[in-house]
């Protein structure tokens, strides 16, 4: 029995953890949402929480609109287009640093009020909402980020 416990402890010690420049364990499973409907995210969103080093918010506010190229992100001065590698995966352009990596929609509630986005690298992740997020949706968003390997202890609420 002691050997089983010792092996379990050794394996736990080998698990990769996020590095200082990432917020996610790169060996954890991650997937974008399979039933993503890009037309339903059109509209105003505000950041509720994100993984960031400093500042009151990372994205702060975003407006998704649909156009001939796909989606546009008006308030963060960038564009996004759906990529064929999977549903809910967006290639973004015109954004600074880690925000320019492909965004994956990790979760959205059934009514498209709360949106969780992140990157496979773990250098970016955020919870967006259309209004005032309820505690049930914030709990669900945090659980999704945790499942995807994000260090949710480093998730910081937006201060707007």
Outline the fold blueprint:
Elements: H1 2-14, E1 43-50, E2 61-67, E3 70-73, E4 78-82, E5 89-93, E6 103-108, E7 114-118, E8 125-129, H2 135-147, E9 156-157
State the gist of this model.
The protein has 160 residues and is an alpha+beta fold. It has 2 helices and 9 strands.
Q: What do you see in this structure?
A:
The chain is of the alpha+beta class and 160 residues long. It is built from 2 helices and 9 strands, in the order H-E-E-E-E-E-E-E-E-H-E. It has helices at 2-14, 135-147; strands at residues 43-50, 61-67, 70-73, 78-82, 89-93, 103-108, 114-118, 125-129, 156-157. Strand 2 and strand 3 (70-73) form a beta hairpin. The longest helix has 13 residues, at 2-14. It is globular. The chain starts with a helix and ends with a strand. The model is unreliable at 1-15 (pLDDT under 50). This is Apolipoprotein D and lipocalin family protein. InterPro entries: Calycin, Lipocln_cytosolic_FA-bd_dom. Residues 72-157 form the Lipocalin/cytosolic fatty-acid binding domain. Keywords: Lipoprotein.
